[in-house]
Specification:
The chain has one domain. The protein has 139 residues and is an all-alpha fold. The model has no long low-confidence stretch (mean pLDDT 97). It is built from four helices and no strands. Helix 1 runs antiparallel to helix 2, helix 1 packs antiparallel against helix 4 and helix 2 runs antiparallel to helix 3. It binds protoporphyrin IX containing FE. Protoporphyrin IX containing FE binds next to helix 1, helix 2 and helix 3.
Length: 139
Amino acid sequence: MLTGFNHLHSALRWVLLAVLVWTVIRAIIGRRTEGTAFSAQQAKLGLITMILMHTQLLLGLALYMMKMGDLSRFFTMEHPMIMVLAIVAGTFGHILTKKAEGDQAKWRKQSTWMSIALLLVLAGIPWPFLAGFEAYGWF
Ligand code: HEM
């Protein structure tokens, strides 16, 4: 079960990154193109991003519990803290966008908060090309 959760948590990063990057690119284009309507499809992208992040949170918490005592400092401190901040930003990115009045305000909220979430996710991943994380795979 531990191995399954590990693989799932690792592989899901790519699904999350793909959807998050797509959401951010579309939000930035929408924000820069005056008069573009904020579509239901774009709102759905934000929702899917948030759901994927919350799924990663649950999987991460499960891994954290199962591996407790067996984790390096990075996985007990930095990784969970950075990712929780990313998940908060992604959640804001969905909720504040939903509450914003007008297309331009929605584009602005979504592009800002989802960009912050993306930068944090990229910073918190134990990429195998970083010193000390060579043992962690790409999938
Ligand atoms: C957006 C959210 C997150 C992403 C994209 C993410 C991504 C990753 C990745 C890529 C790995 C390496 C997996 C491997 O190659 O074996 C990993 C490991 C791990 N993550 Fe996350 N993570 C996220 C959130 C969290 C959170 C919130 C927690 C804890 C509360 C957490 C706890 C862990 C633990 C315990 C490991 C396993 C370390 C080990 O096997 O030595 N993750 N995560």
